[in-house]
Amino acid sequence: MPSAGENLSMRSIPQEVSSRTGVFAVCFCFLFSIAPHFINLPFWVVVIVLVALAWRGLQNLGKIRELPKWMLIPLVLCGGIGVFAEYWTIVGRDAGLALLTVMTAFKFLESSRQRDMLILVFLCYFLIATHFLYSQSIFTAVMMFVTLIVITATLITLNQRDDSVSAIDRIRHSSKLVALSVPLMLILFVLVPRVPGPLWGLQSEQRGGVTGLSDHMSPGKISNLIRSNKVAFRVDFEDQVPAQNKLYWRGPVMAHYDGFSWRQAPRRPLGRLNITVAEPKIDYTVTLEPNGKRWLLALDIPTRLIAGSLMSADLQLTSKQKINDLKRYSMQSHLSYLIGVHESPDYLALAREYPADSNPQTIAFGRSLAQRFDNPQDIAEAVLTMFHQQEYVYTLQPPALGRNSVDDFLFGTRRGFCEHYAGSFALVMRSAGIPARVVTGYQGGEYNRVGNYLIVRQSDAHAWTEIWLDQRGWVRVDPTAAVSPSRIEQGLDNALSGEDSSFRIQNRNPIFGNLLYSWDNPQHGWNDWVLNYDQRKQRDFLKQLEIGIENWSDMVFAPVFMLVSVTGLFWFIAWWRERPAQPQAYEITFNRLLKKLAKKGFHKRPAEDTRAFLQRLPQEGLAQHGQIARIVELYNHIKYGRRGASTQALGNLRTMINSIE
Amino acid sequence: MSLFAPAKPLRRFIDNWVESHNPPIRDSVLLHNRRLYILPTRFGYLFAIMLLFLFLAAINYQNSMAFVLTFMLTSLGIISLWHTHRNLLGVTVRMQIPRPVFCGESCEFKFELSHDNTSKRYAIGVQYLEQPTVYLKLEPEGRAEARLKIPTHIRGEFKPAGITVFTRYPTGLFHAWAWLKYDLPVLIYPRPATNVKLQHSMVEQYDGQTSTSTIEGDDFAGLREHREGESLRHISWKAYAQGKGLLTKTFQGQARPALWIDWDLLTQGSLEEKLSFMSALVLAAESEEQKYGIRLPGLVIEQGFGNAHKHNCLQTLALFRQPDGDPEFRPANA
Q1: Most A CBs within 10 Å: which of B46, B73, B120, as the mutation test of the A interface?
Q2: Among A334, A420, A462, A524, which one carries the catalytic annotation?
Q3: Do A257 and A355 meet the contact criterion of CB atoms below 8 Å apart?
Q4: Is A567 on the interface with B (CB under 8 A)?
Q5: Residues A314, A418, A420, A460: which is the catalytic one?
Q6: In terms of residue numbers, what domain contains B298?
Q7: Closest residue by Cα to residue A478 from A507, A450, A453, A443
Q8: Per-residue pLDDT tens for A300-328?
Q9: What fold does the segment set A346-438+463-505 form as a domain?
């Protein structure tokens, strides 16, 4: 039975042994794909990778024999046990990567067939994805393209069946393939409908060492955070950026005090926000770097909820899920407000509690203030005046404090950072009978004049207090402002000008400041357009494009349509470039002669040369052989002659052929 | 055999469809869109499954770069579909009429692949049925020849079965192929029986007298100019040494008898054995430089001599009562 659809199945080829060049290419390809992971992998896994590759390479050169097959199963088992011993699991990001790496390395030891090599190349493609669980920076993305080129070049090597081609040619070819893929990729990236994840719950793990605000505050906690120059979030304002001293980014609120540290008091989500506002709202968009916690930072006071978020009764915005990936949200705030006027008595009681057995000096001081003044506002003023007028110093390097840390700070060292001032102020207020709590978050931010957005870094971390006043509700009091007004007005660097603390771009280099801002710009755009391109962003963007993509069916249809048309276009170009040449005019004329002869019963044999055919005709009894000979001569003259097909020669040929009956 | 091979009815349907859309070719064919087919390979399907996993992972982790990678690899797949197809597009495949061989020998199929494009073409496979594949590379505007040696096991005249010209270059994710059926004769002579001597009992002798000078005979008659095709045995080397050029010795007298290789004189053996025997006799007569003719039931080839005559005789034997069940040429091990 003839099999016309031959080779629909891949018969013999994958069984073939791969060429020596092919094996080396795959070894290099794996090394290239895994090398950036060496810092994320346990040392012994790196050793296994290097040894396995070296073994396979030497085996390829014929220096050593293939590893006996029976050794593979024990090796694979040991690898699995090793990974389990390292992480106490074999799933999850780190353990999964280690397991995949070890198994791939062992796979090399038993691979010689073309099929195995192709599977190894696919594993390398897959490995690229694991890099993005660790970093999604622009650099990682660039590395992805380079790695794609290397892996694709390996695939080309395996399929080329020609070891004489140079590696550079292969790289060139694979670069071409990758470059051609980019436009299609962009179409897919923009148009393929994004499904909100996660599909299954594996999200608990924290990725990478993230820094950020903690759920409790004790002396030294924030000043540690301040040393990090990492970006906490970036903000695009719809309108004017508010003044620096109004930029209080509200984070965890702490009302529970145990004598040393402040903690969050568990509170129910807010059902309804009772707020009286004075100024118009401020609209802005926050692009939050992963913080490993649930805090959603917003300007004090946020007046909008986003999907998947809650606002607790102490006006703290939290996400339902941990923020392990970049998150972007549109927010709305009012900077001037009356809130919590009708606060629950239970919570107010909690906000007055303090352990009586520690910090006796502070407690006594608070009680004496309560006796001296009637008005709670006056008590607060008195403490702030004390901070302002006495020898209190705002510093990143406060001296160590003893067991009664607030006493030591207020009446001893008098040197502290924002958490010292906020914590001690709140305790004084509580001991004077005024409800008080500590709010942590960020203060200020750095305006990027090139990209027109605000950068808030970990070094902008801050702590302040809120006290509850009758008729006025919760009022923000920032004791740091009393000690060091410039911290609030101009930022940390100005407040600490004597200390080594240049975090901001302007201060680092006044001349290249703009350049450095320009460098932060692509990062912001990258976050905005690539990392944050989710369902909402996609919907908004497609609407903005106004190309008629409005609902789900359009969103499914659009990428398919674009793919088919772009592929069709490529196909057409390929066809156009390879299309069969149009027959020349003399060929068309000449074919008429062949038709005439066929009618008379003279057939050209298959594979017979035209000239040979015409030359044998006279012997086979064609009467007009003299004329045929002249036609052949003219035909050859036109086809092979130097002057080619002149109009006159063509006319002659036509006349002569017409005369044959 | 293969996880992804289409089921049998589907396969038969595809076979018929491909066959009906690929008219037989007389000598050469340009591979263009309508001659080329393309489907994913097993690795193509595996690649697609991997992409699906990547896509699910990207959704699950809401990892934008994983989306980028998934879409990048998808695009790479689509681009390689196009490149694999293009690797065959515009290639002209010419098949030469294979030289006739004796049954049992290998028949050599020669394909000339050429293109007049400025691109290089790699790893183009040429395969005949289940025979080992020959891979070719084409330089820009280049040509290359594939020679497939195909074992034979049956005499007769055949048409080649469909020939597959395929490629998986550059990524191996797709298999592009053309199915080419050539309308060319493949002639296989009957296998010559071994140890056959020209015994007079087997042939009918023709005892006509001749007096003309021939190269056969008893008495030396003189020298004449050497004609092309004559055996070197009859050249007068002595005359050649004297500088007279190539001269052939002629003899006068009774020529050796002309023979009839006659079907009716062979009483034993099957049809194939008889043809095999007659084929051996043709070769023997030719090598002993006797005139011979063939008599088959209802068919006579007049006596003659020389290469053309030999091939004519052998062809007649090859075609004689050819079982016309399968005119398609199948190799011995198929």
Answers
A1: B73
A2: A462
A3: yes
A4: yes
A5: A418
A6: 190-208+257-334
A7: A443
A8: 888 888 888 888 888 888 888 888 777 88
A9: C8orf32 fold (3.10.620)
